Amino acid sequence: MAAEHSEPRLHAEDLTLAYEARIVAEGLGVRIPDGSFTVIVGPNACGKSTLLKALSRILKPKAGSVVLDGAAISSYPAKEVARRLGLLPQTSIAPSGITVADLVARGRYPHQRLLRQWSLEDEAAVAEALALTGVDELAERFVDELSGGQRQRVWLAMVLAQQTPILLLDEPTTFLDIAHQVEVLDLCADLHEQRGHTLVAVLHDLNHACRYATHLIAMRGGRIVAQGDPREIVTAELVREVFGLACRVIPCPETGTPLVVPARRVREQTPVAAAG
Fold first, then answer.
1. What is the edge-to-edge ordering of all strands in the sheet holding 71-72?
2. Residue 86 CB: number of other CB atoms within 10 A?
3. Are strands 71-72 and 63-68 parallel, antiparallel or unpaired?
4. What phi, psi does 147 have (nearest 5°)?
5. CA 261 – CA 253 distance, rounded (Å)
6. What is the pTM of this model?
7. pLDDT of 3-12, one tens digit each?
8. Where does the signal sequence lie (predicted)?
């Protein structure tokens, strides 16, 4: 159970993030609202995935700290972190010849101990994760036989089998067609709205981010430009500052959330040669 404190369960203070000597981001302060669907957006190489790696303890900050449930995330044993926080990385490769059920069952590893192996509780958690993601009918199929959309749901099922209150998703819609992108994001929204999970996702599509996020973090050049409710912070000026894109921001006719419409391309007029 979470410790009593005024800060959200997951937040970070004054982070400096680097790969060896190369500084990627400095002075990042991030608060993930409890029970939110937080989305991190920004142009390529702005530090989005690097920030997510720091929040999940994959990347150790060069300075600053990530706090989980009132304590530095680095102070917990790895299995304890995995019982509180689940991560779907950007690229996931399943072992050859593994079935869907066996891969999803690996999500129960953080709950295994020397004197507590597979249990009825584990069985129920796996069955629930398969059902929630709609892949229960694929349980006996080999993962490498599945479509991209099916595989992404299976990986999400494995993370759900961990039964963590916080889920971190690094570009969960990459390489999926538009229908499967919406399918996966609808599932994430259901997990947030109906089951109370706190979700943090990195997305490339700004309109998807505006449609699904309850809290948006916009990054550029290793710094946070804005964070808050997308209905309040997403403007044409912000899009221009973050992405360098001239646009209009209008209400989406389906959801009322901000919809970014790129400005019309101005074509150069080719002079018409005079008739000889």
1. 22-32, 10-19, 63-68, 71-72
2. 25
3. antiparallel
4. -75, 165
5. 13
6. 0.88
7. 445 789 999 9
8. none
Q: Is residue 267 part of a domain?
A: no
Number of structural domains in the chain: 1
| Domain span holding position 14 | 10-262
Sequence-separated (6 or more) residues with CB below 8 Å from residue 135: 100, 104, 150, 153, 154, 157
* Residue 16 three-state SS: strand
Arithmetic mean of pLDDT over the chain: 90
User: Under 8 Å CB-to-CB from 210, ≥6 apart: which residues?
Assistant: 216, 230, 234, 252, 257, 258, 259, 260
Helices 148-161 and 178-195, interaxial angle, to 10°?
A: 20
CATH of the domain at 14: 3.40.50.300
The SS3 assignment for 86 reads strand
- The answer as to whether 38 is a domain residue is yes
Can you tell me the mean pLDDT for 32-44? 96
pLDDT tens, position by position, 131-187: 988 899 999 999 999 988 888 889 999 999 999 999 999 999 887 889 888 988 998
In a domain, 95, yes or no: yes
> Does residue 153 contact residue 173 with C-beta atoms inside 8 Å?
no
